[in-house]
Design a protein that fits this description.
The structure is a single chain. This protein is an alpha+beta fold. Among the domains are: 13-82; 104-177, 3-Layer(aba) Sandwich (Glutaredoxin), CATH 3.40.30. It has seven helices and four strands. The protein has helices at residues 14-34, 45-49, 51-90, 113-124, 141-147, 168-177, 182-185, and strands spanning 104-108, 133-136, 153-156, 159-163. Strand 1 (104-108), helix 4 and strand 2 form a beta-alpha-beta unit. Helix 1 (14-34) packs antiparallel against helix 3 (51-90). The chain crosses the membrane at residues 21-41, 53-72. Pfam families: Glrx-like.
């Protein structure tokens, strides 16, 4: 079991690396067919003694570049698809801020785009949710049999609320309809949006947030 705290981000320089590898691989491949007599410099001796090695290198570089660029493209598309939802969520605030529920569990598996999407959505509403656990269904054969065809599965306080995909409209309704947990109702005076630790009339009335303040 593990807890996810950050969204997947595009590593800096990854697009440049992918383009460079693809360009270099295609260039070597092109030179192997058209020859190098016109170049103003001499190729390494292995170019002439072991041309097949250079062709394999070219194919490897080209393939790696394509894989990297494909990953970059998928991550950028995912970001663009999620952006409108994030903007909408940023304008949505429940009447009573603060975290709801006691437990939140997400059953997931490796290489699952819908699972990644579910984590993204949960992170958008993290100010109103408890810290969640991610459980890989392949860690237990019984979980594979139970959830193998419908991950992600989201349990809130032990009850299955979502299968396959999180519906943000329903998630918002659950948040609005659920009371803020007792620990979060305690006041720390930080008055940060979404924290639930609202300020008091006087310092003497503040009872602290019991270490639950998300703005610390």
């Amino acid at each position: 079991m593990s807890t996810i705290t950050h969204k997947e981000e595009l590593p800096p320089g990854l697009p440049f690396l992918g383009n460079s590898m693809l360009f270099l691989g295609l260039s070597i491949l092109a030179l192997s067919f058209i020859g190098t007599e016109w170049l103003p410099f001499q190729m390494p001796r292995s170019w002439y003694s072991s041309p097949s090695i250079w062709k394999l290198l070219a194919l490897g570089l080209s393939g790696a570049g394509i894989v990297i660029l494909n990953r970059v493209s998928r991550m950028e598309m995912k970001k663009q698809q999620r952006q409108p939802e994030i903007v909408t969520q940023a304008d949505w605030i429940p009447e009573e801020p603060g975290r709801r529920f006691e437990t939140l569990t997400v059953y997931t598996k490796q290489d699952c785009p819908l699972c990644d999407e579910a984590v993204d959505i949960l992170e958008d509403y993290a100010a109103y949710l408890p810290e969640w656990e991610l459980i890989d269904i392949y860690s237990d054969p019984a979980l594979v049999e139970k959830f193998g065809t419908c991950v992600p599965v989201v349990l809130i306080d032990g009850k299955i609320r979502f299968r396959g995909r999180i519906n943000e409209v329903l998630l918002r309704r659950l948040i609005v309809a659920s009371p803020v947990t007792k620990a979060i109702r305690q006041k720390c005076g930080c008055n940060k949006q979404g924290c639930g630790c609202q300020s008091q009339k006087s310092p003497a009335e503040s009872s602290g947030c019991g270490g639950q303040c998300r703005c610390a």
